[in-house]
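User: quick one, fold this
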Amino acid sequence: MSKNIVVFAAHPDDEALGCSGTLSRHVDDGDNVFIVFMADGETSRHTNKVELSDRKDSAYRSCEIIGCHKPEFIDYPDNRMDTIEFLDVVKKVEHYINKYKPLIVYTHYQNDLNIDHQITYRATMTACRPQPSFCVKEIYSFEVLSSTEWSLESVFNPKKFVDISNTLSRKLDALDEYASEMRSFPHTRSKDAVLALAKLRGSSVGVKSAEAFQIERFLS
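Assistant:
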């Protein structure tokens, strides 16, 4: 039976970096995947409407490659989610939880360096507080190169690994849609670094490529 999956990502490109291989597997298994982008990912750079539109177009194409449904955009200001009343952020997340009734939720690691990632995590966990008969049974946090490994707090310590050996090419294709966000090696947000991380996570569990997650909740 197909499952509803929701990803709460701070910015367009976080889904591709963090969990697009896993999401592609969900799609291949017949699951319904929905992505909600919290912030625009651009306005901290004083960009114009054309660049904002281009970023959304990249997100649409990335989602098409992954195979998920048309993404949702909340459009909070980039790297300024701490200026939004936290309750308002939580209510936005709750809206999409109620809309899609997901069994599984993916979101950011709580100690990412990026403030929007941190708030997205907190809002997701608050909206998904475990009430009786609540639809969400599993919550996982993913790592995003150029934020998770730059954390000043505790180190990302994954306990769930997903073999993406057969979907890694789709992850790389999804990242190609965000070419303006990618950098040249040895920058951590480079295709070489993405491949290295996939191989590291894979080899740690005996497969060619993997994505890794912290388990925030698992109710069987």
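User: anything notable?
Assistant: The longest strand covers residues 210-218.
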